[in-house]
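User: I'm putting together a small comparison set for a docking exercise, and I want a reference complex before I start. The sequence is below, and the ligand is zinc ion. Could you produce the 3D structure with the ligand included, as structure tokens?
Assistant: Of course. I'll restate your input first, then give the structure tokens for the complex.
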Amino acid sequence: MKIQIIKCLKDNYSYLIIDETSLSACVVDPSEAKPIIDFIESNNINLKYILNTHHHFDHVGGNAELKKKYNSNVIGFKGDKERIPEIDTLVDDLNIWKKENFEAKIYHIPGHTTGHIAFHFFKEKKIFTGDTLFSLGCGKIFEGTYEQMFNSLKKIKALPKDTEIYCGHEYTLQNSNFCVTYDANNSRLKEKITQIKQKLDNGLPTVPTILDDEMHCNIFLKAKDVQAFSKLRDLKDNF
Ligand code: ZN
Ligand code: FE
């Protein structure tokens, strides 16, 4: 299974998950249809499934056009059935979603929105975290509570340490500035920042990131309790 990173809008990432034997594919969070269509058409891919982590426009903006063009099936959280455009398949916390060679466990991870989910392709050790966990950051809390977001991140922290994290935005550099301001003596963080800058200088994405790196470098994952986490989230909102 191959992951193709597709840049969308200003700083969004959509992902094509491609079964190279059948050329069937899923797209995660198509912000817009055009860049997805361009890749699909030039690579003869069949876009069968549209996976949405949450209902925000920059994650579902391409749903309608892609579904119409490819007759794809739209998968999203059951609680967001009124908010995810063109939704077909409703999934819930801890469901296993399985089609063809694609198999993912669903985690309900509220905080950024009340209906946010992650898709964990556990056999391949890859998780799509939308706007909940970013590299060196976490999403803003728009609809949920600090406690919900803290617990959602805890679920991701419990996955195998070599899990690859695919997040919804290229926010890594800004996030790293915050982390290093409040965690100035973290040498592993400084090493990671060097690598991040190299990638960006070469026009490359900083995703995926590895869970083990995030556990050591992402200040939000290092927060010991909800109080510490909440304080960091407030500081970041005003950073
Ligand atoms: Zn969002
Ligand atoms: Fe977003």
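Residues 54, 56, 112, 131 surround zinc ion (ligand 1) (CB under 6 Å). The domain at 2-91+105-237 is CATH 3.60.15.10 (Metallo-beta-lactamase; Chain A).
User: Thanks, that's exactly what I needed.
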